[in-house]
Automatic annotation (TrEMBL):
Organism: OM182 bacterium MED-G28
MF terms in GO: transaminase activity
Span of domain Aminomethyltransferase C-terminal: 299-358
Family matches, as Gene3D superfamilies: Probable tRNA modification gtpase trme, domain 1 (3.30.1360.120)
Protein's UniProt name: Glycine cleavage system protein T
UniProt xrefs under SUPFAM superfamilies: Aminomethyltransferase beta-barrel domain, Folate-binding domain
Length: 393
């Protein structure tokens, strides 16, 4: 018989504190790591992000350090956006495609200086990154386990970090990053997040992780700080309009059936495709699609009623034209929101559609046809997200 230790999932550097705080004992799996679905009450965790500060352990996020004389040249070849425009000490949201112009994943690219980058993503793509690096003078290292990371998000997040002694943190601009002394080491802080609100991500080496957690929660004890799990994060990211790989699209390298992957244009990410920069993966396929048009479109839907349209079919009249990928009742926006992939000719703003929703109560399934309407943009975006200096809320 194998011991418990031999069958245990991976644990993040914050696990001892995370496990102690997880009163509900509800856990998910994230790329081999154990991670909380919820700590106490999902609603309380959600409102911590919207009204004070929520802390999410994002250590399992895949992290690749990419260095070498050709690092910038290489990344500009595999990414659809112009990497040269991401300045040092800045972070850029980016996507990368296969040769057919289908999205493999999205993520954030950190520029630490000349030819020194970190790529953070949902998928693990080391093999593909290395194959794509043939002919380039680059080194790619998987440093996922080398850093713990916490997302510190919400209106009081800057005040909490100031209380920790991170002098000048309020001056950090959105998508900026800076290093601060911490104990006898340092912590890197980026003004990034997945919530649509003021927020930061803290990056630290594992030996300092527990100290960082303790200091963070001590500093935020009078500012409404609370640990949040994956369920609350799911609510806030839907409200803010952020896509999730494996949920809103299938990474191209993971598809089994033809036609299940999507292009940047079909995901509403065409703004991340820069045809002026020269050759990059999928360029020819994407140029053709731009000329001829896309079959599918990604849309935000305002759904009638309060039943989330999870996994629903989207209809135009009696015709099925697409499916819902994410859905939630959003408390702050007081809206029933869905993300959907639909046939592009029905994606115009204001288009009236129908969501075919199925839900279960006491073992009985109910079919509901709810009216829905295509809307232009996400339903939540806090002005504090971009305000610099960041406010004390």
């Amino acid at each position: 018989m194998r011991s418990h230790d031999e069958t245990m999932m991976l644990q993040t550097p914050f696990h001892s504190r995370v496990a102690k705080a997880c009163e509900l004992n509800q856990w998910d799996e994230w790329k081999g790591y154990t991670t909380p679905a919820a700590y106490t009450e999902v609603e309380q965790e959600y409102f911590a992000v919207r009204n004070s500060t929520g802390v999410f352990d994002l250590s399992p996020m895949t992290k690749y350090r990419i260095t070498g004389a050709d690092a910038e040249l290489y990344l500009n070849k595999v990414m659809t956006r112009d990497v040269r425009k991401i300045n040092p000490d800045r972070v850029g949201y980016t996507i990368w495609c296969n040769d057919a112009g289908q999205v493999m994943d999205d993520g954030t690219l950190f520029n630490f200086g000349e030819n020194n980058y970190r790529l953070c993503s949902y998928t693990r793509v080391m093999d593909w990154l290395q194959w794509s690096a043939m002919g380039f003078d680059v080194e790619i290292i998987d440093e996922t386990a080398d850093f713990g990371a916490l997302a510190v998000q919400g209106p009081t997040s800057c005040a909490v970090l100031k209380a920790m002694g991170f002098k000048g943190i309020e001056k950090l601009k959105p998508f900026g990053m800076s290093h601060f002394p911490f104990e006898d080491a340092e912590v890197m802080i980026s003004r990034t997040g997945f919530t649509g609100d003021l927020g930061y991500e803290l990056w630290v080496e594992p030996p300092k992780a527990i100290t960082l957690w303790d200091r963070l929660f001590d500093a935020g004890s009078n500012l409404g700080i609370r640990a949040i799990g994956g369920n609350a994060l799911e609510m806030v990211r839907i409200e803010a309009g952020f896509l999730q790989a494996g949920v809103d699209f299938v990474p191209a390298e993971e598809t089994v059936r033809v036609g299940r992957s999507r292009s940047p244009f079909e995901l509403g990410l065409g703004w991340l495709v820069d045809f002026d920069k020269g050759v990059f993966n999928g360029r020819q396929a994407l140029l053709k699609e731009k000329r001829e048009g896309s079959r599918y479109a990604f849309v935000f839907l305002d759904v009638e009623g309060n039943k989330p349209a999870e996994h629903s079919f989207i209809l135009k009249g009696n015709k099925e034209i697409g499916t819902v990928t994410s859905a939630a009742w959003c408390p702050t926006a007081k809206s029933n929101i869905a993300f959907a992939q639909i046939e592009s000719k029905y994606a115009n703003s204001g288009e009236n559609l129908t969501a075919e929703i199925y839900y279960q109560t006491e073992l009985k399934w109910t079919r509901l046809l709810a009216k829905c309407r295509v809307i232009d943009s996400p339903v939540f975006s806090s002005p504090k997200r971009r305000q610099t200096p960041a406010p004390d809320f």
